[in-house]
Amino acid sequence: MSLLRLDDVYKSFGDHDVLRGIDLEVAQGEVVALIGASGSGKSTLLRTINLLEPIDDGRIVLGGVDISDPRVDVDAVRARIGVVFQQYNLFPHLTVQHNITLALRHVHRMKKSEADAAATALLQRVGLADKAAEHPDRLSGGQQQRVAIARAVATSPELLLLDEVTSALDPELVGEVLDLVRDLADDGMTIVMATHEMAFARDVADRVVFLDAGRILEQGPPAEVFGAPREERTREFLARFT
Ligand code: ADP
Ligand code: MG
């Protein structure tokens, strides 16, 4: 059974149809890369899954629960999903440690001592134990994104959504963030990520999904989509990255 399933999902803003009938299934442990031009609907798709945008039609099912049902407990759904955006993920007025413990205490109702121990272990794992007491603005962009990812997985979500998490970074900082994503993928985390890092998608994703004007135009294993795209639009899009 799939962990996540979108059935014929539609979303428009005013008269602009942004998602136009999205069908997508994601299996437990699968890593799916969403690619497509700017404006094709990648962020909107991720935001609908996290219930940041209500959908107009269709259905979104997570772990057997219809999370697009208006009666759903939004906080309970969000507690099952980790999300990291392009930037501004961390609370600037809180230390790195506190950014992580806040999530643990809020979502898992952990005691402070318990949350502190978990945060310390997590920061160690992402190689940032020495930054625990710093505020985010004292960290590089790459370090901030690593903390943001650590915080997103601290609560052991079933699903991790990543929206162009390296797009705002200087090129030399991209690698350390992608390495962490790769680690999580290797660990079995289910990940749906919008990315412009084609080499990374080819390397890490189990499946690549090409969005074109709010529709999935083509999808498949990276070797197929990148190596032998079936659709002209996919070829045109990919040509920009070579
Ligand atoms: P992508 O992430 O692929 O660049 P987005 O999902 O951000 O695409 O945007 C898809 C389209 O939806 C764009 O044309 C964008 O301007 C529009 N859009 C996104 N969010 C909103 C919003 N809150 N209100 C109006 N239009 C929006
Ligand atoms: Mg986007």
From TrEMBL:
<dbReference type="InterPro" id="IPR003439">
    <property type="entry name" value="ABC_transporter-like_ATP-bd"/>
</dbReference>
<dbReference type="InterPro" id="IPR003593">
    <property type="entry name" value="AAA+_ATPase"/>
</dbReference>
<protein>
    <submittedName>
        <fullName>Amino acid ABC transporter ATP-binding protein</fullName>
    </submittedName>
</protein>
<keyword id="KW-0472">Membrane</keyword>
<dbReference type="GO" id="GO:0005524">
    <property type="term" value="F:ATP binding"/>
</dbReference>
<dbReference type="InterPro" id="IPR030679">
    <property type="entry name" value="ABC_ATPase_HisP-typ"/>
</dbReference>
<dbReference type="InterPro" id="IPR017871">
    <property type="entry name" value="ABC_transporter-like_CS"/>
</dbReference>
<keyword id="KW-0547">Nucleotide-binding</keyword>
<keyword id="KW-0813">Transport</keyword>
<dbReference type="InterPro" id="IPR027417">
    <property type="entry name" value="P-loop_NTPase"/>
</dbReference>
<keyword id="KW-0067">ATP-binding</keyword>
<feature type="domain" description="ABC transporter">
    <location>
        <begin position="4"/>
        <end position="238"/>
    </location>
</feature>
<keyword id="KW-1003">Cell membrane</keyword>
<dbReference type="InterPro" id="IPR050086">
    <property type="entry name" value="MetN_ABC_transporter-like"/>
</dbReference>
<keyword id="KW-0029">Amino-acid transport</keyword>
<dbReference type="Pfam" id="PF00005">
    <property type="entry name" value="ABC_tran"/>
</dbReference>
<comment type="similarity">
    <text>Belongs to the ABC transporter superfamily.</text>
</comment>
